[in-house]
Amino acid sequence: MFPYFISSKTTHVFPDNLEPDDTGLVALGGDLSVPTIIEAYSKGIFPWSGEDPIPWYSPDPRLVLFPRDFHLSKRMMRIIKSNQFCIEFDTNFTEIMTRCAHIQRRDQEGTWINERLIKAYSKLFDLHIAHCVGVYNNNEICGGLYGLSLGSCFFGESMFSQIPNASKIALYYLSQFCLKHNIALIDCQQVTPHMLSLGALPIPRHLFLSLLKEFKVDQVKTIKWTDFG
User: Fold this and answer.
1) For residues 212, 101, 163 and 228, what is the CA-based torsion angle, rounded to 10 degrees?
2) Same domain, yes or no, for 72 and 148?
3) What is the pTM of this model?
4) Average pLDDT of the chain?
């Protein structure tokens, strides 16, 4: 029967044979505990919201960005070289996530990032599993993104801009960080024109799941990114 309803009695929350419906939904229910979230991402699944029953998604196709393929326009390069912005890794995580929740998006009412999700991902940040990139202008945060790092993959969750191009700058510096520290893949979840314009590529879900195994996402990385130097 579809969708799959998560039982509290299961040892592994997400069976390996789950298949998404036309919207990408694979399961309903469960919780937002650290083990559940880690298992979900290691199997290419993410929560869409913190509302009960929690909806879990694994869309097909899947949008991914190989860091080397990030497209930086000449205009964006001039902006970055102007040194107008300061970039910080793993600072103000909850603030960045909260701003992602409150930013207005075209054709979207409300937000899927509720307080329950913020609490869950902030706990992952405290464990150095979730990470963030912040963009600052005159010491004020103006853009950023957050997500999870497992194995050699970064699972991007959301990003925001409060001035033009700030989220693009955050993604550029994330891509550079990934290249430097052997993070091979950035998961962008759903296909959007904006991410396609920045070099992201839609791939079949089965290929995405194979890449997760290749990049050893079952290995949890617990290191604060600022410790990389």
Assistant:
1) -40
2) yes
3) 0.93
4) 92
19 with 97, same domain: the answer is no
What region, left, alpha or beta, does residue 182 occupy, with left being phi > 0 and alpha being psi -120 to 50 degrees? Answer: left
Question: pLDDT per residue over 72-122, tens digit each?
Answer: 999 999 999 998 999 999 999 999 999 999 886 555 454 679 999 999 999
Confidence bin at 50 (pLDDT 50/70/90): confident
Assess whether pLDDT exceeds 80 at residue 229.
no
Strand partners, 150: 153, 220
Domain membership of residue 150 as a residue range? 63-228
Number of neighbouring beta carbons within 10 Å of residue 176? 15
User: Is residue 166 within 8 Å of 142, Cβ to Cβ?
Assistant: yes
User: Are the CB atoms for 121 and 46 separated by under 8 Å?
Assistant: no
Note whether 118 and 12 are same-domain residues: no
For residue 189, list its beta bridge partners: 63
Helix (H, G, I), strand (E, B) or coil at 47: strand
Domain holding 41: CATH number? 3.30.70.3550
**HSE-up (13 A, CA, CB side) for residue 142:** 15
The helix/strand/coil state of 107 is coil
Are 152 and 180 within 8 A, CB to CB?
Answer: no
Kind of pairing between the strands at 86-89 and 201-203: unpaired
Would you give the DSSP letter of residue 70? -
166-204 pLDDT per residue, tens:
999 999 999 999 999 999 999 999 999 999 999 999 999
